[in-house]
Design brief:
Distance between the termini of chain B: 45 Å
Shape of chain A: elongated
Oligomer: heterodimer
Structural class of chain A: mainly beta
Strand content of chain A: 35-45%
Radius of gyration of chain B: 23 Å
Largest interface: A-B, 60 and 66 residues
Strand content of chain B: 15-25%
Number of strands of chain A: 65
CATH architecture of one domain in chain B: Roll
Order of helices and strands of chain B: HEEHEHHEEEEHEEHEHHEEHH
Chain lengths: 998, 347
């Protein structure tokens, strides 16, 4: 009967839960996965990117971003902004057209799909008749010209998408006045390009793929000029004054054509193959930009000599004698030029080249000498090298923040100082409440520091650990170094470089102490580096130690990779985090857990063989403990990290890039048609059922035993000052949890500060707990006398946290993949437990203590556990009573890499990878919410007679009601102020600590 | 051969001492033997612990006749089997903790060698087409030994018959616990795991739930073969009937005995080693006053939901389990007594 007395039906608590917890996916950081289309509005100064999964994202000034998702999830082929409007049209690969508009709602702009349309031909006509190949939004804003595969150009009215059949431009009409010898029905197959005359809106230029170009008079509905190109056409571009246009071709040539009233069928002015004379690849797009000095900028994509450079992804810029072929590491999707949009201006005066490549966005400053790249404030390529781990640090003290920024700015000197040229819209989101850092570790041995405070994930600083080691790759060996007189004049741009020189360099664990500036990183080959922040370049030797984790074991042979070779002697390090200690685990298995205690100056690390503790003050190994089960041969040989050939690692890199084609995007999407969805689900289920019957998958039911493999794998390490031996004296302690459900506790003796260098740190094993269910231990935590988690090292010293309650009795929380258990300390007796797996069949993947503040009252906050399960659900579990508070579905359970990448912040937010290049940011808190909020102003608001408002995007759902927003803003403002005040107070202390530490 | 020697009736000492004395007297220090005596009714009864040793000494009138047999060729059937002896077996079942380990192989028919490997429970509350089976996993000596798979079953719904996904037993490992019980069979549909319905859960989820409960696994199945179902108020037939006998009342002390060995079936008792000393079970903390309510709620909630039993107020505490601390005993005994109720109704 007790089972009906479920806890948690207390109405007061229920209300409080509503004030504390709320789940929102707020913003996607990083670079869109598989971009497929690019658009730009010079009027709005907004850029739009479409992806293969049907998402469109609009970006303007930093912080201004919008996102929309086509219900169909089809590839976005083209994006066209309607001139002088807050509207854009997308063409998907299912030949459907979608009209999106930015509308103000509740004080902020929202992107919404207004209308959709699929061009339908007469009954019986082949699909190619209406397959749209070119889209021209006319400057009148009233019609859209749609070029098709059949050569017909249809005219549709906006925004209703009504086809104006009497205005269709048919190939027959076009061919009427063409000379007999060119009068071939086939010459009007497939409309490749449509361009409106820059001065005369009544004329449009029609380019057919076989080379025929026609200037069409819309008023009189006839062709006025014919340009008989002989090469297969790729694209067209009007010069600013409308006196000439340029066509570019499949054979790598471009041609200038004059347009004058006296010659109706002119010959080309100039025909050039820029990278000839040998056969060249197609030039797929070209710009001809005029300047004051008379020398035009000719900017085109492709055209490289087919045989020797046909594999390059290039965009060439020619300006007088200057010529550069920007060489991209991934395929170029599209590009545009930002130039003077003032119609009265005489010249184009291009200022920037914006290139969307498959894996990154590159912006080139065309105004500055040497055409340097501009550092983008958003759309960072998180996956320049594959992300191997991430670590989040909340509330960074101002001083550390500034030092990291200053170290980063020294790395960015080669970037242009040009302000970000895409600056449409206004960011009206409140300033971020605190300074947050997201650290990502990468396969190539780098750690990137991202400003994760706000909507724009911005790279602050990049740290490389490679310098410490001797690797096969010679740093001076740059494949792209070409001599001055090399032709073509290729110049590598961008940062995307998926090739890792040595997979052993990969970063696996990161720990940053925000108070002291100490950073510990650990990697794939058992390397552990301790670093400190130095504002100057320095040359020094790194202290090197080895930790033999197999000390007591004999007769084993490690068959995995070798340890990394270290560089002897002093190494030059640039300003920033500079390593001073290197510990290498032996055998060099991947480091699976890491903890740093900046106050005690200790670093603990664990692998599949055991764990060790290193005193980085005295540079001395304190102890190692082997956790290996004698029969666990697998762990010993290291199948997790067998020697990989370079070839294999390359292959894996490729695979990783391709991988998440499968990982389709978020579950959100439009409201949709419920019954349709159900039907589809039912069908899917049926299919799934049939599949199951065909190939039954079996699962073995067996209890875990001590002999299972990888039981010694150290999953978690934790430092705590608590009562380990007796209840009268507390002491520093180190806790370790293994894959086999064992918890080890070591009592530490750290000498007082004045004798810190004289006496050794001592450690002694005090306890060993074996969980009978033997599930992997993923989290260890000590709660103080008030049941509050112990503060981080130095937190109390900097007055940022109340000192822990050492009067009441402490409790130990052990989180395994299956259960949460609270034990008393110092005598370990079990007090409470929550058996998650036995009840729900899910397992804990990530767990963190998060602080949740109430949105109603400023002074209430509580600590809870934020838990991510293997099913992708997020659960909040109360402390210390371990009651499930709330559960949200977050990540699809099939998205294993998404679940593995999830990282929680200390204030109830989190990040996970939705693709190799994008983090989804989510929030569990009502109080801490970082989401875009911006306005795009329109000079004139047009009255559109929209039939209905389809809220196809998630925007409507995720925006809070307008009333709340003002309140949020005020509150966050105050919080920021508060945070700053705090910093002023502690700044000096931090500085003194830092100086004292050296 | 015969030996005669004297004992002090008021201070008989411990059984171990007596056993040692016997071995010494017979000069067979390293031979395992079975000790028996004839009681006042003339039945041959075993002496293998302090209690029945004391009982035997107290019944000596004045002579106590002891029979000693070599264990390998012991004739177990010699021991009394009538109703009178069975009552006393309750006493005889409290074992020395290491009794099992000493024996090279499990000897059939000695009561102390019995331990439940499985039982059918909750027969009174389940539909006749379902069977709730409890598997007892002791240490690691025998694998649970079964596999599950996805499949589909037909349900009767308001809309008629409907095909729904389900979880089925796909394979039994020969010699495994699941197979040896005879209570589970290939193609049985799994409906619940430790009281929690599996419908709507994926194969992986159910796998994780079963493994998480592997030390005390209770599976409710709909047997593929419905002919061996338990029929209420009448004796069952076939293999399932035989198996249920393993949970006769005599098994209760065995559970407690196994607790002493640290081979408990539930995972309550994690082990702690303090200062590299001897491993011990972690006791339960006495709830502090502030948290007592929520604590007991949670604990009880888990006990009940996980096992599918309602804690009973009727405690079937065995007086012989005096060395076991109360914290273990209460839930165990409560659970046990109900389980027996179920079984008794079956019989």
């Amino acid at each position: 009967m007790r089972r009906f007395l479920r806890p948690g039906h207390d109405p007061v608590r229920e209300r409080l839960k509503r004030d504390l917890f709320q789940f929102n996916k707020t913003v996607e950081h990083g670079f869109p996965h598989q971009p497929s289309a690019l658009g730009y509005s010079p009027f709005l100064r907004l850029m739009a990117i479409g992806t293969r999964s049907g998402a469109i994202k609009l970006y303007g000034a930093p912080g201004v971003e919008f996102m929309g998702l086509h219900e169909e999830n089809n590839t976005v082929m083209q994006i066209h902004f309607i001139p002088d409007q807050c509207q854009l049209v997308t063409l998907l690969d299912d030949n459907s057209l979608h009209l999106w508009s930015l509308k103000q709602h509740g004080g902020a702009s929202e992107l919404r799909e207004e209308h959709r349309f699929t061009l339908k031909g007469p009954p019986g006509s082949p699909p190619s008749a209406t397959q749209v190949t070119a889209v021209l939004p006319h400057s009148s804003r009233e019609v859209l010209y749609l070029g098709t595969e059949s050569g017909n150009i249809f005219v549709v009215e906006l925004p209703s998408f009504r086809v104006l059949e009497d205005r269709t431009i048919t190939p027959e009409a076009v061919l009427q006045r063409i000379p007999e010898d060119n009068c071939n029905r086939r010459s009007c197959e497939l409309v490749e390009a449509l361009q409106e005359h820059p001065k005369n809106p009544d004329q449009i230029l029609i380019g057919y793929s076989r080379g025929l170009i026609v200037l069409w008079d819309l008023q009189n509905n006839k062709a006025t000029h014919h340009f008989l190109g002989s090469q297969q056409l790729e694209n067209l571009y009007w010069q600013r004054d409308g006196s000439k246009f340029i066509s570019c071709h499949y054979d790598g040539s471009y041609t200038q054509w004059p347009v004058s009233s006296d010659n109706r069928q002119p010959e080309p002015l100039e025909n050039t193959v820029p990278y000839g004379p040998f056969p060249c690849k197609a030039i797929s797009k070209i710009y001809w930009q005029t300047t004051k000095n008379g020398l035009p900028y000719i900017i085109f994509q492709g055209g490289m000599p087919r045989a020797s450079y046909g594999d390059r992804h290039s965009i060439s810029v020619i300006h007088g004698s200057q010529q550069t072929a920007f060489d991209f590491t991934s395929r170029v999707i599209d590009f545009f030029i930002i130039f003077s949009s003032d119609p009265a201006a005489e010249f184009d005066d291009p200022c920037a080249l914006v290139v969307l490549a498959e894996e990154e966005l590159v912006v080139i400053d065309l105004k500055s000498a040497g055409w340097p790249a501009v550092h983008p404030p958003y759309l960072a390529s998180l996956h320049c090298s594959a992300i191997t781990c991430s670590h989040h640090v909340s509330n960074i003290p101002l001083k550390l923040w500034e030092r990291i920024i200053s170290a980063g700015s020294k790395q960015n000197i080669h970037y242009s100082s040009m302000p970000w040229p895409i600056d449409g819209g206004t960011n009206i989101a409140p300033d971020p409440p605190q300074r947050d850092l997201l650290l990502t570790g990468h396969e190539d041995g780098t750690v990137r520091f991202w400003d994760a405070s706000g909507v724009c994930l911005h790279l602050l600083y990049k740290l490389s650990t490679v310098r410490v080691f001797l690797t096969d790759a010679d740093p001076n060996d740059n494949m792209n170094t070409l001599g001055e007189d090399e032709w073509p004049p290729l110049r590598k741009v961008g940062t995307f470089d998926p090739y890792s020189d040595d997979p052993r360099l990969g970063i696996q664990k990161i720990y940053l102490c925000k108070y002291s500036g100490y950073l510990a990183v650990a990697g794939t080959a058992g390397q552990v580096l301790v670093m400190e922040l130095n504002d100057e370049d320095a040359e020094h030797a790194v202290d090197h130690a080895e930790a033999d984790l197999l000390q007591d074991q004999e007769g084993y042979r490690w068959k995995g990779h070798e340890k990394l070779k270290t560089r002897d002697g002093p190494v030059r390090f640039e300003a920033g985090f500079q390593p001073f200690v290197l510990v290498q685990c032996q055998p060099p298995a991947v480091v699976t857990s890491l903890a740093l205690h900046s106050e005690w100056k200790l670093v603990a690390f664990g692998t599949s063989h055991g764990f060790g503790l290193f005193d980085h003050q005295q540079k001395r190994l304190v102890f190692v403990k082997c956790t290996l089960h004698p029969s666990d041969q697998l762990a010993l040989e290291g199948p997790l990290s067998r020697v990989k050939s370079l070839k294999k690692s390359l292959r894996q890199s490729f695979r990783r890039i391709r991988r998440s084609r499968v990982s389709s995007r978020k579950r959100r999407g439009g409201g949709g048609n419920a019954s349709e969805v159900q039907e589809a689900n039912a069908k899917f289920d049926q299919d799934a059922l049939q599949e199951m019957e065909l190939a039954p998958v079996q699962r073995k039911i067996e209890a875990r035993s001590a002999e299972d493999s990888f039981t010694g794998f150290v999953r978690t390490l934790y430092f705590a000052d608590t009562f380990l031996r007796d209840s009268s004296r507390h002491c520093p302690s180190l806790w370790a949890g293994t894959n086999g459900g064992t918890v080890y506790a070591f009592c530490l003796r750290v000498p007082p500060a004045e004798r810190r260098m004289d006496e050794p740190v001592r450690a002694e094993q005090a306890k060993e707990i074996q969980l009978m269910h033997r599930a992997p231990v993923v989290g260890i935590l000590v709660l103080d006398g008030r049941s509050t988690p112990l503060p981080e090292p130095l937190e109390v010293a900097h007055d940022l946290s109340k000192s822990p309650d050492m009067q009441g009795s402490h409790q130990l929380l052990v989180v395994s993949e299956e259960q949460f258990k609270v034990f008393t300390l110092p005598k370990v007796s079990s007090k409470l437990k929550l058996k998650l797996t036995a009840l729900e069949g899910c397992r804990v993947r990530k767990v963190t203590v998060a602080n949740f503040g109430s949105c109603k009252s400023d002074d209430y906050s509580e600590n809870d556990l934020a838990v991510l399960t293997n099913l992708g659900d997020i659960q909040i579990i109360s402390l210390p009573f371990l009651k499930l508070q709330i559960r949200y579905p977050c990540i699809r359970k099939e998205d294993v890499s998404g679940i593995a990448s999830c990282v929680f912040t200390k204030y109830g937010q989190g990040f996970y990878l939705i693709s190799p290049s994008e983090f989804e940011r989510f929030s569990l808190s009502t109080k801490w919410l970082v989401e875009p909020r911006c306005i795009v102003d329109m000079p004139e608001v047009t009255s559109n007679n929209h039939v209905h408002n389809k809220s196809g995007t998630e925007n409507a759902a995720r925006k809070s009601s307008p009333g709340d927003c003002g309140e949020d803003e005020r509150k966050s403002g105050r919080l920021m102020e508060h945070a700053l005040l705090n910093d002023e107070k502690v700044l000096k202390e931090i500085q003194s600590t830092l100086e004292g530490g050296r | 051969e015969f030996r005669r020697f004297s004992l002090e009736r008021s201070k008989p000492g411990k059984f171990e001492e007596f056993y040692g004395l016997l071995q010494h007297v017979h000069k067979i220090p390293n031979v395992d033997v079975l000790v028996g005596y004839t009681d006042i009714h003339g039945d041959l009864l075993p002496i293998n612990n302090d209690d029945n040793y004391h009982k035997a000494v107290s019944t000596a009138n004045p002579l106590l006749r002891i029979f000693i047999q070599r264990k390998e060729d012991a004739d177990y059937s010699a021991f009394g089997t009538d109703t009178m002896t069975r009552k006393k077996n309750v006493l005889s079942n409290v074992l020395r903790p290491d009794n099992h380990k000493k024996k090279p192989h499990i000897v059939i028919s000695m009561p102390q060698d019995f331990r439940p490997v499985s039982s059918i429970i909750d027969v009174d509350i389940l539909p006749e087409t379902h069977r709730r089976v409890r598997l007892y996993k002791y240490g690691t000596d025998k694998p649970l030994g079964f596999y599950i798979r996805d499949g589909s079953s037909v349900r009767v719904t308001p809309h008629g018959l409907e095909k729904v996904p389900g979880i089925f037993i796909s394979r039994l490992v020969p010699g495994g616990l699941a197979q040896s019980t005879g209570l589970l069979a290939v193609n049985d549909e799994v409906l619940e795991v430790n009281g929690i319905e599996v419908s709507g859960k994926s194969l992986d989820q159910v796998t994780d739930m079963m493994i998480a409960n592997s030390r005390n696994l209770i599976i409710t199945v709909r047997p593929a073969n419905q002919r061996n179902n338990v029929v209420r108020n009448s004796r069952t037939s076939g293999s399932s009937g035989q198996s249920t006998e393993s949970s006769l009342p005599s098994s209760t002390p065995n559970i407690l005995g196994s607790l002493l060995q640290g081979e408990e079936e539930s995972d309550e008792e994690d082990i702690i080693i303090e200062d590299s000393g001897e491993p011990q079970q972690i006791p339960k903390a006495a709830p502090t006053s502030e948290s007592i309510e929520s604590l007991s709620q949670i604990e009880l909630l888990h006990e009940s939901t996980q096992n599918g039993f309602l804690p009973s107020s009727e405690m079937n505490l065995n007086h012989s389990a005096g060395s076991v601390s109360m914290e273990y005993e209460v839930p165990e005994a409560g659970r046990k007594s109900l389980e027996e109720d179920g079984t008794i109704i079956t019989l």
